[in-house]
Structures are given as C-alpha cells and as structure tokens.
Amino acid sequence: MSANIAIDKTKTDSEIYEQLIPSIKSLINKEEPLICALANITSVLKDTFDKISWVGFYLAKEEKLFLGPFQGKTACTVIDFGKGVCGYSAAVKKTIIVENVNEFPGHIACDENSLSEIVVPLTENGAVAAVLDIDSHSYSSFSEIDKNYLEILCTFISDNFQFRKGLL
Ligand code: SME
C-alpha cells in the first residue's frame, strides 16, 4: 500500500516534521518487508525538503556499511565503520551534523556538490544496523531540529523492523 503525502513546504522545518512523522508512520506497514519502508521514507524525505540533494540508508554488516534504498545520484556502495561521516556515525553510534563537509576530516565525496550532511544511526539490540544519510548542496542545512525528528523517525524504524532478518 502507498499513499501520497501532501506537505505545505512554506512552513518551518519543525512544522513540516510535525506533519511528516505521523504521515510516514501511517504510510509504513510493518507486516511488509523492511525494504518497502526504507524506500518510501527516502522518497518522502527527498520530495518534502528542497534542501535535500541525496537521502539514503546504508545497511551495516560486519563493520561495513552497504548502500541501501536511496534517492539521488549514484553513490559509493561500501563504507567501512570509522570512515567518512557515515562510518564515523556508525562507529560512535551518534547522530553527526556536518555544517561544511570540507571541514570534516575524511569526508567521502560521492557528490562533489554536496556541502553539508547529517547522518543518523539506527540500532538493533545495541548494535548499529544502518545509518540514514542526508546530504545538501547548501552549507549548514541541518540543525538540531532535523536531528531531533530524524532520530524519532529512525527509532520508529528500529522499533518496528528487524534488520537482522534482511531487507525482504
Ligand atoms: N558523504 C558520506 C558518504 C556517502 S554519500 O554522501 C551518499 C560520508 O562521508 O560518509
């Protein structure tokens, strides 16, 4: 099942997330495979926020992150834990906001036009199961507001799906 989500883009980010999070929750069917939820979430986020140039999930396996469902240009497929913003977030199990990617040591530039980024880890039984990576073509696109709501979203996914069962 799927449904269109109508969002008023003239609102503030907080107001948009307040509308978006319950809409995403209602869109997701936890009886369906994980890949369906991840794919539609990337679509909704990319459609909703003009500041997003790329959004996707990397899935963790044996201390590596593998490219999963995403929206945007083609991206690097494998990132070691500890490498880049994604790998750093996975290693420290924390959300990382990067206002200027050129100032982040080891940033992996899949898209040379990317200027800022946020990465949110998803955990399962205490271990990192995936990260949500979002890029922007503007500096300082992501704030504590994005962190707050994206963490709520990622916790919802972790609470409702089992990554160890696989995508399908
Ligand atoms: N910039 C990320 C790599 C993934 S791409 O942005 C899609 C990083 O430094 O981990």
Q: So what's the overall shape?
A: globular
User: How many structural domains are formed by the residues?
Assistant: 1
CATH topology: Beta-Lactamase
Q: Any idea what the radius of gyration is?
A: 15 Å
Please give the structural blueprint:
Elements (H helix, E strand, L loop, with lengths): L12 H15 L6 H15 L5 E8 L2 E8 L6 E3 L3 H9 L3 E3 L17 E9 L2 E10 L7 H17 L8
Antiparallel strand pairs: 1-2, 1-6, 2-3, 4-5, 5-6
Helix pairs in contact: 1-4
Give a description of the structure:
With 168 residues, the chain is of the alpha+beta class. It has a single domain, classed as 2-Layer Sandwich (Beta-Lactamase), CATH 3.30.450.40. Helices cover 33% and strands 24% of the residues. The chain contains 4 helices and 6 strands. Strands 3-2-1-6-5-4 form a 6-stranded antiparallel sheet, with helices on both faces. α1 packs parallel to α4 (144-160). It is globular. The mean pLDDT is 95. Methionine sulfoxide binds next to α3 and β6.
Short description:
33% of the residues lie in helices and 24% in strands. The chain is built from four helices and six strands.
Main attributes of the structure:
single chain, 33% helix, binds methionine sulfoxide, Beta-Lactamase, 4 helices, 6-stranded antiparallel sheet, 24% strand, 168 residues, alpha+beta, globular
